[in-house]
Amino acid sequence: MKFDKPAGTNPIDRKMVIGKATDRIDGPLKTTGTAPYAYERHDVVANQAYGYIVGSTIAKGQIASIDTADAKASPGVVGVVTWENAGKLGTSHWHTARLLAGPKVEHYDQAVAIVVADSFEEARAAAKLIRVQYKRADGQFDLAAQKASATKAGDGADSAVGDFASAFASAPIHLDQQYTTPDQSHAMMEPHASIAAWDGDKLTLWTSNQMINWAVDAMSDLLLIPKENVHVMSPFLGGGFGSKLWVRADAMLAAVGARVTGRPVRVTLTRPMVFNNTTHRPATIQRIRIGSDKDGKITAIGHESWSGDLPGGGPEGATNQTKKLYAGANRMTALRLAVLDLPEGNAMRAPGEAPGLMALEMAMDEFAEKLGMDPVEVRIVNDTQVDPENPNRPFSQRNLVGCLRKGAEAFGWNKRNPKPASVRDGRWLVGMGMASAYRGAPVMNSAARVDIDRNGVVTVATDMTDIGTGSYTIIGQTAAEMMGVPLDKVVVKLGDSSFPVSSGSGGQWGANSSTAGVYAACMALREKVAAKLGLDPKSAVFENGTVSAGGKSAPLTDAAGLSAEDRIEFGDLSRKYVQATFGGHFVEVAVDAYTGEMRIRRMLAACAAGRILNPKSARSQVIGAMTMGAGAALMEELVVDKRFGYFVNHDLAEYHVPVHADIPHQEVIFLEEEDPTSSPMKAKGVGELGICGVGAAIANAIYNATGVRVREYPITLDKFV
Ligand code: MOS
């Protein structure tokens, strides 16, 4: 099904199942510990051996020699694989650094060997006996030191409209500030894990992955086997946040280990390995300049961002939102990329906007203060309904103003004292802050297959993943709505490359795109059902397990055995319109006047994100993302060892993420919205919106509480002195 013009009224609009707060259908499996995660799949193939990955202890250089003799002789060891005996391997365009080093080493903890043994403990013990001699080369590990050497981050990375330089120079109100965000780790609950088994030259991989089709593609490229020979399954994930968009060393080395030893191999990255072996969100240095007249209308806005990555890597797109969020005739954005020999930088929840808004929305707070205007009003004054870089391109929908007004009202923003450090509650200094939220709403083609059995059970199969987001449930709701059956008459099968190729989970495109694919398949199935039952397909109504049209009706079970597959193919509406999600974050904090200890007291987000398919799981997505944003504001930082080039704090004891005690009451308001240009579902996505801007709202609240402006995230209490 082509989707190239705005959706009219369709069966989803009945909203009998869609749009209703619905418990997750996979909830019981998860809460009873019976959802099968990749590393737990003892049952799927016999004779599994355990792999243990050895990481490089240098950041850059060459492997001079690897002595594996003692490891091979160690009890229980089945084999040891290094670049010398791995056989011929390919490269994948999904990866900047290779998943198995040798002889070249590109980053610390890059895999140099996998030990395969009868037990995990034997593999781990043998791994300690491997002796690697390195020739270490000098690397660059310090973004600030490399800032001057950074170059333009590729074609189309920069943008310019009007004459920024002169408009900024002549603006009566000026802001010119620098902000920094640190390297961050996804820190998902479930580390990367895989089981690989070969049958001749056919590979089966049970893994934890967000994008099944990309995984098939990468495994085919890396192992030099045809795509048809790769079967990937990832029905449950314990989080991804972008770290599992692409297969990592666990998947590749499980497959290579299994190929070399002839045993199915099971591998998990240990928690400490995840931080340096996989990807992270790169640190940024951002300069923001805003100029305006005294009325607060922006006349010039400039945003430059510096980040680093390995040779061949990409920038952190921290200027994304600045291209779209506020009006202003004269504007520029620029991304500068330095070469750093740290582990690979890549996508983490809302890449670009998440760190970009941490800077931009703090700048807007400082700008509001210079103007003597309320921070909410400054944002409203600078609203725009067209792309500020291209006035011919409207937003499909944009209710930022509604989010800000509704959020402010619900939060009690009018009680804020604009004078910093003026509200006391015993030993606590209390403050309020806010920020806008913005995140693009991309779409991806997505396919599904739907069938009906003799009990009237509708089964949906698609290679879509549920990374903890609720995909199972919204896909089930979509099929239930479309086929006119209750949700408990729908079976959803996900995460298997033998199913039709879906959008996968990334960039907050999953909900809208994958359900639209299910919609397309259901439309095809409805046609078949109507034809079989002798009913007019155009007017057929599917309800309560019955199909009726023109005064006739028949039970859906009469269509048992029918099956249909289709795909939603998105046309150019996403080029005609800017499709994006919006929100307003409001936060109250308290800061201990003597110790600087910070406590978040209240958080509220008002979101405009198209039709909300399941208000319950959508709320969970937003509060989870707000929690992640609180981590970004207050605690998360990968500390770089600038001498040796690795992240020092590589476990959850030292890489701090928020716990329940850090997070207060959170409230989420969804504005009524349906976007007919987004898909037949009229939905967008909320998986990433919630993290966007919230860090700055917290920072701004801390400033309001204390009068101290910390522009280097995370805002830890040592920075108050
Ligand atoms: Mo997302 S960072 O595209 O999983």
From TrEMBL:
Coiled coil: none annotated. InterPro entries: Ald_Oxase/Xan_DH_a/b (IPR000674), Ald_Oxase/Xan_DH_a/b_sf (IPR036856), Ald_Oxase/xanthine_DH-like (IPR016208), AldOxase/xan_DH_MoCoBD1 (IPR008274), AldOxase/xan_DH_MoCoBD2 (IPR046867), AldOxase/xan_DH_Mopterin-bd_sf (IPR037165), PaoC-like (IPR049648). Pfam families: Ald_Xan_dh_C, MoCoBD_1, MoCoBD_2. Residues 32-138 form the Aldehyde oxidase/xanthine dehydrogenase a/b hammerhead domain. One of its GO terms (molecular function) is iron ion binding. PANTHER family: ALDEHYDE OXIDOREDUCTASE MOLYBDENUM-BINDING SUBUNIT PAOC, XANTHINE DEHYDROGENASE. This is Xanthine dehydrogenase family protein molybdopterin-binding subunit.
